[in-house]
Specification:
Keywords: Amino-acid transport, ATP-binding, Nucleotide-binding, Transport. It is a single chain. Helix 2 packs parallel to helix 5 and helix 5 runs parallel beside helix 6. Helices cover 35% and strands 27% of the residues. By secondary structure, it is α/β, with parallel strands linked by helices. A hairpin with a 2-residue loop joins strand 9 and strand 10. It has one domain: P-loop containing nucleotide triphosphate hydrolases (Rossmann fold, 3-Layer(aba) Sandwich), CATH 3.40.50. Strands 6-7-8-3-9-10 form a six-stranded mixed beta sheet, with helices on both faces.
Amino acid sequence: MLRLEGVSAGYGRAQVLREVSFVATAGEILCLTGRNGAGKTTTVKSIMGLLPLMAGQVTWQGAVLSDLPPHEVPRAGIGYVPQGRRLFGEMTVAENLEVGRLTNGKDARVLEEVLTLFPRLNERYRQRAKTLSGGEQQMLAMGRAMCLRPKVLLLDEPTEGLQPSMITSIRDATEQMRDKGVAVVLVEQRLDAITELGDQVVLLENGRMRGVLTRAEVASEPTKLARHLGV
C-alpha cells in the first residue's frame, strides 16, 4: 500500500497541503479530485519527492519514500506521468521509451507490452516526440512510465484536452494497469471519469481533505461529488 500520513507540503514558505492522509491499494484506482488549486498536483509531487514535506510521511511497502531523493523514488517502483507530459521532444518514441526502461534493467518484454497496449506508438516508433499529436504524446508519457514496471502509477490529469478517442485509449490503459495489480493514483476533475474509474475518491479543497468516497458512495450520492467539483 502507498500510504500518506499527515502530509503537509508547499512551495517555499507557501503551504498548500495540510495534513493529507490516504491509502492507495494495489489493484485499485484512487481518484484525487477537487477544483483548481485544491492541491492535487502538489500531492503527487510530494509523493515523488519533488517537494520537501513540511510534516508527515509517505510510505510504500514499509519504506519511507519521503526519505529518498527524487531520483530514487522511481527505483522504488513509483511511476509518474505529470501534467505537460515532460517528454524529451527531440528524442524519438523509441528513445523516450528506452529512458523508461533504464530503471528496470531494460526488460525486453515490457517494451512489447507497451507497444501492444498503444499500437499508435509502434506506428510512430522512429518519430520525434515533439511531432506527435497531444494524444500520442500522452500515450508515450504513459508508456514511458509503464516501462518502469511500476507498482504504483501516478497520473496527473492524463486526458486533459484530448479528443474522445484518445480519452478512451488512456482510460482503457489505466484500467489495464489496475487489473494487473498496480495501485493507480489518478488526478482527475472530469465527473464521468471519476464515476467510471474510481474505486475510491479523495476529495481535496484548499489543501485539506474533505472526505473519502467509495465507488458505492459515488454511485448512490452523485450530487455530493458534483457539488464538490462545482459541476
